[in-house]
Amino acid sequence: MTVISGASGTGKGTVCKKLLAELPQMFYSISATTRKPRPGEVDGKEYFFITVEKFKTWLAEEKFLEHAEVYGNFYGTPAHIIEEKRNSGVDVLLEIDVQGALNVMKKCPDGVYIFLLPPSLNELCNRIKNRGTESPEVLQRRIDSATAEIAVGKNYQYVVVNDTVDAAVDKIKAILTAERCKVERNLADFEHFENSATN
Amino acid sequence: MTVISGASGTGKGTVCKKLLAELPQMFYSISATTRKPRPGEVDGKEYFFITVEKFKTWLAEEKFLEHAEVYGNFYGTPAHIIEEKRNSGVDVLLEIDVQGALNVMKKCPDGVYIFLLPPSLNELCNRIKNRGTESPEVLQRRIDSATAEIAVGKNYQYVVVNDTVDAAVDKIKAILTAERCKVERNLADFEHFENSATN
Which residues between 128 and 167 in chain B have a beta carbon less than 8 angstroms from any beta carbon of chain A? Predict the structure, then answer.
């Protein structure tokens, strides 16, 4: 399981989209939400749209890796769907905010945690500004919160600077290749040699 | 510093040669030896050819990361040369036998340790057989010793199966890219954001 996270305005969405286009065998984990679908949104594509009752049942059954309430709607990452995919040998990609990722880290220490950094604070400010016409106070609050989120990135395993989407995606692909080469993920290879040698 | 190691017959030499051809900015660390140069061997290319006196001086000055005596000749990995390169920001590649790598691991825990595996025990036997016309007993001893070396590979960080040289080199390059993305190697990036934010 690979978790890609980063402060808002870092470009997580664009990077994940490109990554999935290049690695179509990866399963992109989508959240469950109790909010109503917006026009064009499809159940099972952008989100799993579920009722508040179902959300509460899943929550009681500990079916969420992490969950949050935003503006009165519930959002959660369904662990059982990720688990199903992982058990069948499928790589799972999770795109998640900084706070959510920290919670997932506690529950899944064997995941690969990648933090995306914007190329510079200036660039981050520009990206946040370009998102909407907010008041200077709101903008400053968003920038402060993004800066605080960046400090949390030190708890991740890997950091990738998103200067260009292509370069960031290449680095993430290299991280996935390297993680597949970790000895602890390949102990079966060593056992295979030991067994062949004794036969 | 990247250490590539593996049992004899795994193809370390060929893989390192290809890797260096693709990453010419890497410094390939060569050993110092007291044995005489063979025809065609150049001091500073295949080995640093040094006298027994100089070897003993370097040994007393703890200038070797590891050393060994083979058939009456001394071999050692000069730490000071590697240190010089690393301090000037140059990536260093070390190709080293299994026992030597274990010693280097203790002294340089921040290195990247990659273990090369042959595709199969059969393939390893073939490669060892093709190296010379030894007696069945000597062959069996070499195969046993290679099998024992493979078991040590579990102590490394990464394992790369050398099924084709190109694929193995690509994986090693991905490992180097991923290692450069490790958070602990990029703390300066985070400090940079913290400093910009407070200014």
Answer: 144, 147, 150-151, 153-161
